[in-house]
Design goal:
dGTPase-like; globular; HD domain-containing protein; alpha+beta; HD_domain; HD_assoc_2; single chain; 3-stranded antiparallel beta sheet
Length: about 450
């Protein structure tokens, strides 16, 4: 029996709060889970700063990746049982594709770094490129496991994640507008944040999912389950992912890392608190091994050191982040955008460096987007299959989805120190500045003062 075919003597299970059990049957999957690169994901939170808003959101990328694997496994089981390929090219499921789909599902997020999106912004890393590098680099344990299957198997797995794999069925399992990745993180994030917005009928969606020559489609009778998923996704973005406090903490984290980098580059950093494991990133010259050494705990340890920095801005930002002291924010629109320079001037007058203590942050998302080939990155649209085998795009038959198709949701916010809203500063030198600043804010929005 080849390594590719090798099954465990008895399937292994992981208890999971979302899926009950995650079933592992292949030796290669268990070996991948046991690699150092995959175990690192236990030390990286799935939602970054969101746990500072929803305190239960302490779950890791490790659990999410297991969940995506489990959903993909169930999809493969359904396809093999109900839609097996009988003739090459007939649009059915070829179960020889199972292992590459399962490995891609398991490893799809392995390139994420600590506080990943903020870290990427500061240090210009790309978690998708790093995922492919971890999979294809001979230096990683992940690559050594995958090569036991076949010499070119790591490249096949990376191709699924990079969306260049020749079988669109496999790609769309992992990456489309309704895929194993999104389905797991909506359910998982909803569970751990203590919200119900992300709940939808996963069992029904998997039941109506089916392969065809162009990828994956859904039976027409499953339209309402798909609608429910689309609405759940919309609600999670509005209520959880775009929450102003989480975004505020991301702003502080972003400026904290930026300040540390600036001090290092100007040789003004405290020698005793030098972040040695971050220096390759400050110098823009890091290796894959440098990257894999990082996790949330490494960054938090440096933040703790920086509390005692001689640099007041670095020390204050570190304290604000660790002690959860978010910036306040107000919504901005085209009419009030020109006010921002005046507001930054007032913040400077109150003693804050406006570069580090203010920011604008955009959070927008499309709940559903019909395919547009002119887009830079066109999305795979959701197709419904009728009884005669013909396909209809979801928004053409769903009034609910059509109402939100192409509608951008979200907002732009201006972030500033909470002190600017002080009303208790009777003896404060800056009381007139605070009062002037507050004329510009009403009901969580910037306004034109009268």
């Amino acid at each position: 029996m080849t390594y590719q075919q090798q099954l465990l003597p008895m399937e292994k299970v992981f208890r999971d709060p979302v899926h009950d059990y995650v079933y592992v049957q292949h030796q290669v999957i268990l070996d991948l889970i046991n690699t150092s690169e995959f175990q690192r994901l236990r030390r990286i939170k799935q939602l970054g700063t969101t746990s500072l808003t929803f305190h239960g959101a302490e779950h890791s990328r490790f659990g999410h990746c297991l969940g995506v694997y489990e959903i993909t496994r169930r999809i493969c089981d359904n396809f093999e049982r109900n839609y097996p390929s009988k003739v090459t090219g007939d649009g059915g499921w070829d179960d020889h594709e199972r292992l590459v789909a399962l490995c891609a599902a398991l490893l799809h997020d392995i390139g994420h770094g600590p506080y990943s999106h903020t870290f990427e912004h500061i240090f210009h890393t790309d978690h998708e490129a790093l995922t492919a590098q971890i999979i294809t680099s001979p230096a990683t344990e992940v690559n050594q496991v995958l090569r036991k299957v076949a010499p070119d198997f790591p490249q096949q797995v990376a191709a699924v994640i990079q969306k260049t794999y020749p079988n669109p069925q496999v790609v769309q399992m992992i990456s489309s507008q309704i895929d194993a990745d999104r389905m797991d993180y909506l359910l998982r994030d909803s569970y751990f944040t203590g919200t119900n917005y992300g709940n939808f009928d996963l069992t029904r969606i998997l039941r109506v999912m089916r392969p065809y020559k162009g990828g994956i489609t859904f039976a027409m009778e499953g339209m309402h389950a798909v609608e429910d998923y689309i609405v759940s996704r919309f609600q999670m973005y509005m209520q959880v992912y775009f929450h102003p406090v989480s975004r505020s903490m991301e702003v502080i984290l972003d400026h904290l890392l930026e300040r540390a980098n600036v001090l290092y580059q100007s040789h003004a950093a405290d020698a005793e608190a030098t972040p040695h494991m971050l220096l390759p990133f400050f110098n823009n010259n890091f290796t894959l091994q440098d990257y894999l050494r990082l996790d949330d705990g490494v960054l938090n340890t440096y933040f703790n050191h920086w509390r005692d920095s001689r640099d007041q801005i670095l020390a204050d930002l570190a304290t604000r982040f660790l002690d959860r002291r978010p910036l306040k924010s107000a919504r901005v629109d085209q009419l009030t955008q020109p006010l921002l320079p005046d507001l930054r001037r007032l913040i400077e007058q109150a003693g804050f460096d406006s570069h580090y203590y203010t920011d604008t942050n955009d959070s927008y998302d499309l709940p559903y987007d019909a395919y547009d080939p002119k887009m830079k990155k066109p999305r795979t649209q959701i197709e419904l299959m009728q009884k005669d085998g013909s396909l209809l795009e979801l928004s053409t038959v769903s009034d609910l989805v059509r109402a939100i198709t192409g509608k951008v949701s979200g907002d732009q916010r201006f972030f500033f120190p909470k002190e600017m809203l002080s009303t208790q500063a009777e003896n404060d030198l800056f009381k007139p500045v605070y009062q002037d600043f507050q004329r510009y804010i009403l009901n969580d929005r910037l306004i034109l003062p009268k």
